[in-house]
Structure formats: C-alpha cells, structure tokens
Design brief:
56% of the residues lie in helices and 0% in strands. The protein has 100 residues and is mainly alpha-helical. Helix 3 crosses helix 4.
Length: 100
C-alpha cells in the first residue's frame, strides 16, 4: 500500500497538482470511504476518525460534499430497497402484550 501511495504522490506532483488540491482530494476520498463503511452515519464515522461529529459535518461542508446524498445512500449503492422488496414484519394483535 505504501508503494501505491508513493506512486500516486509522484504522479500528482509530476502533473503539477498543487498541494492544497491534493490534500483536499485525499480528505474527500477518505471521508467518503469511512462514511460508506458506516452507511452514512456521521456519528459512527466521526468516532472512527477520532473527531467530533460537528467537526466532521463542518469538514464535509468545507469540501462541498452533499451530506444529504451521503445520508440517503445514493453514493456507493447504499440505497434501501423499495418497500415492495422489504420483508414484512409480523404485527401482534393489540390485545397481546409484548413482554420483551
């Protein structure tokens, strides 16, 4: 992995990508990866990243990442299946007490 990162950095430098743009792109990709792992849950992603959820939210806004899109799972195919494809939960009759 280190070799791949070294190669990527060399390529970015050779084509003239400014440092600020390289850091910004890395942040975007890394944050999106962690968010995808946690299915858009910013609280869990922030915990994994070792930052406060508000800091993560602010960073996403600074990077112009659409938090609604992440939350709704449009990215990386995380969208919930339509209601017609979801299993139906069994309902208890109203006169039965749930003892769980």
């Amino acid at each position: 992995m280190k070799r791949e990162l070294d190669l990527l950095v060399t390529q970015m430098h050779s084509v003239g990508i400014p440092y600020a743009d390289a850091v910004r792109e890395f942040k975007k990709r890394y944050l999106l990866e962690v968010l995808a792992h946690h299915k858009g849950n910013q609280c869990k992603a922030a915990e994994e990243l070792g930052m406060h959820r508000n800091t993560l939210s602010r960073t996403l806004a600074e990077l112009n990442l659409d938090t609604a899109q992440i939350r709704n799972g449009i990215r990386n195919g995380m969208r919930r299946p339509p209601m017609s494809e979801r299993p139906r939960a069994q309902r208890l009759p109203q006169n039965v007490v749930n003892l769980r």
